[in-house]
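QUALITY CONTROL LOG
STEP: pairwise intake check
CHECKER ROLE: data steward
CRITERIA: each record must contain a sequence immediately followed by its structure tokens, with no blank fields

ENTRY 1 OF 2
RESULT FIELD BELOW
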Amino acid sequence: MAEDPDQLVVGNFSLATPGGPFPQGWKPLIFEKIPEHTQYDLVNDEQQVVVKAISRQSSSGLTREITIDPKEYPVIEWRWKVENILQKGDVAQKSGDDYPARLY
């Protein structure tokens, strides 16, 4: 399948190998003051390679630094699957600042 010239693909994890390295440029974001970090792995899910994140009282991120002109690429599109929905969250309180997925 040919790439659409109007789209800029930033993270096509489905082309990666389960258990293999992340695509070039992707790396974990570690918060040094937080002792536990989320574990990220490439796994098969419903016949597609995806990023699986396991977090147990931990925090971190999976990042790729990139500069994009929003006038040229004004739309961001992504998919994710959350298996454990938290019942409460409050970004204003450290005790409630816990979410299964975020985009910054």
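ENTRY 2 OF 2
RESULT FIELD BELOW
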Amino acid sequence: MEIEESEPADIVPADPLATVDDDQPAPRREYDLLALLALAVLPDIANCFLYSDSAWAGEYSVVDFTLQLIVRSIQVSVPLLVIMRLMRVDWAEYGFRPYRLARDTAVAFGLIVLSYFMAGVAAGLLTALGFDLHGVGEAVEHVSSESTSPLLALTLVLISSLANGFAEELAMRSFLITRLRSLGVPTEGAVLGSSCLFAAYHAYQGTYGMVSVLGVGLVFGAYFAWARRLWPVVTAHFLMDVIAMVYYLDLSGG
């Protein structure tokens, strides 16, 4: 008689830092999460409070802005990838699955639409409650592209958006959600926690920016937790960054 095998509905990833040898002390499980906070979250949160509005006084070039974003993305993504390699993680559990061009791109556009919808709903609710949703785009409104050729500016925007999208999604979705779940945190808690951290280090964007980013984080996090696919959220993040930067560069005279 044949016995049909069914796949488990929701497999919690194993803790890669756990040990099966009872005679050896278990390593400190939080070290990699502390590294994540130190690399991807705390520096940007600190910048939100250490730099006053005067730090944005005066314009600076799109070359400076995008190169800084690229360097910051490398500072986050490369150490995290090294940590994951040393942990010998199951890359598929962290969302590294083959990219399906048509399907994953279509999913990315769906995530973008849903993210904008969530951000709009949240902003509408806060406005109705009397909150002043200020600070939209202030991070790039002083970036000037007047002295940069349009082709170079667009190239740098594309590269920096891709680097930033990969770094943030690697940290907030791929690494953080997967590790929290492996430590026993419920999926809902992992998604909410990562989304709150994601919004916290975007405080420089003001109230509206933080609310919008929180909505994006919830949408991206929920999809990643369900599908275990990193590339659709990276693609969506990349496209949203491109749209935002091109829009605000145009407003600043680029």
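INTAKE CHECK: passed for both entries
DESCRIPTIVE NOTE, ENTRY 2: Strands lie at 60-61, 143-144.
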